[in-house]
Automatic annotation (TrEMBL):
<keyword id="KW-0472">Membrane</keyword>
<feature type="transmembrane region" description="Helical">
    <location>
        <begin position="146"/>
        <end position="165"/>
    </location>
</feature>
<keyword id="KW-1133">Transmembrane helix</keyword>
<keyword id="KW-0812">Transmembrane</keyword>
<feature type="transmembrane region" description="Helical">
    <location>
        <begin position="121"/>
        <end position="139"/>
    </location>
</feature>
<feature type="transmembrane region" description="Helical">
    <location>
        <begin position="185"/>
        <end position="201"/>
    </location>
</feature>
<dbReference type="Pfam" id="PF06197">
    <property type="entry name" value="DUF998"/>
</dbReference>
<feature type="transmembrane region" description="Helical">
    <location>
        <begin position="55"/>
        <end position="78"/>
    </location>
</feature>
<feature type="transmembrane region" description="Helical">
    <location>
        <begin position="12"/>
        <end position="35"/>
    </location>
</feature>
<feature type="transmembrane region" description="Helical">
    <location>
        <begin position="90"/>
        <end position="109"/>
    </location>
</feature>
<protein>
    <submittedName>
        <fullName>DUF998 domain-containing protein</fullName>
    </submittedName>
</protein>
<dbReference type="InterPro" id="IPR009339">
    <property type="entry name" value="DUF998"/>
</dbReference>
């Protein structure tokens, strides 16, 4: 019974993080409703959830949903005893915080309360990247592929954030820089989620 419960927690964690991939098709669909067209280079992600966006409700609901899924996956992972370390436990707490911050991003659009929206977005980024850094320690030599995956996306996300706050955005445009900073976090979650599901699938078959 214990093995089944642990399998269930790991499966929920993996499935929740893989499900955050819904953000990508929804954001593309919402951007497609814009007239004049949405400019990925110049427009920020949050612009999709403002009054200028015809499908703003769907985008904000997606922000909320992705936040809930992120937090749910982290809470489930925290319940998996195998491989648990202090670093992983704290990382799970930070990812719950990141998830709740993403919910706030959806509840408070940038054209509503810009200060609160920005605070939520910054909290999401810092908590998420901090969690990834701790998980990099937790994976260590035991999970070299996940460690390499995590290290790569930490570097990309931080580089994107630096480009975002730079006046010239390193020539990328604010929209592209923000995607390097934030969308990469979603890609990281999806990869880790798939890894968790793959491990559980192999155990189920054995």
């Amino acid at each position: 019974m214990t093995r089944l419960t642990q399998h269930g927690y790991a499966t929920i964690a993996g499935a929740s993080w893989v499900a955050t991939a819904l953000y990508f098709p929804v954001s593309v669909a919402v951007a497609a409703t814009w007239s004049p067209p949405y400019n990925v280079r110049e427009h920020l992600i949050s612009d999709l959830g403002t009054a200028r966006s015809p499908a703003q409700v769907w985008m904000n609901l997606t922000f909320i949903g992705i936040g809930v899924l992120t937090a749910t996956g982290a809470a489930a992972l925290a319940c998996v005893r195998e491989g648990r370390t202090a670093a992983r436990s704290v990382a799970c707490v930070l990812l719950v915080v990141a998830g709740m911050a993403n919910v706030a991003v959806g509840l408070v659009p940038s054209d509503g309360d810009a200060t609160l929206h920005k605070l939520a977005a910054v909290t999401y980024f810092l908590a998420h990247v901090g969690a990834m850094a701790l998980l990099l320690l937790a994976f260590g030599h035991a999970r070299p592929a996940l460690a390499a995956w995590t290290a790569t996306f930490i570097v990309v996300a931080i580089a994107g954030s630096v480009a975002l706050v730079d006046d010239g955005h390193f020539g990328l445009g604010a929209g592209v820089a923000e995607r390097f900073a934030l969308d990469t976090l979603a890609v990281w979650r999806i990869g880790v989620g798939l890894s968790l599901l793959a491990v559980e699938f192999r155990r189920f078959r054995s």
